[in-house]
Amino acid sequence: MGSGIIVFRSFRIMRILRLASKSKSLKLLIDTLLFVLPSLGNVSALLFLFFFIFYALGLNLFGTALWWDYITFDANFSEFGKAILMMYRCTTGENWN
């Protein structure tokens, strides 16, 4: 029963791909996406390098800060992993009132 549903869903995906080959505008959009994908790797590497610099700065400047209202066990710069999560929270604006 479960494998039949998976096969049916794969045929639905094939139908979308067949539609993409017939539509010129959708084909142009997919070709543009495939053309841009290698550049996204460079941008991602640059963004990671930029964040890594701020991880290191956060560890050096705020690693020994006392815990208070907003500097908690989960949100601090005391360890590298927690610094990554803290930078992610700052970047996405999570829990910023």
Radius of gyration over C-alpha positions, nearest whole angstrom: 22 Å
Rough outline: elongated
- Stretches with pLDDT under 50, minimum 5 residues: none
Q: Per DSSP, what share of the residues sits in E-state strands of 2 or more residues?
A: under 5%
Calculate the mean pLDDT score and round it. 79
Main sheet properties = none
Strand segment count = 0
Helix fraction by DSSP (H/I, runs of at least 4): over 70%
Number of domain units: 1
Total of helices: 3
Distance between the termini: 48 Å
- Which H/E pattern describes the elements? HHH
Could you say which structural class the secondary elements and strand pairing correspond to? mainly alpha
Account of the 3D structure:
With 97 residues, the chain is mainly α. The chain has one domain. It has three helices and no strands. The protein has helices at residues 2-22, 24-62, 80-92. The longest helix is centred in the middle third of the chain and has 39 residues, at 24-62. The mean pLDDT is 79.
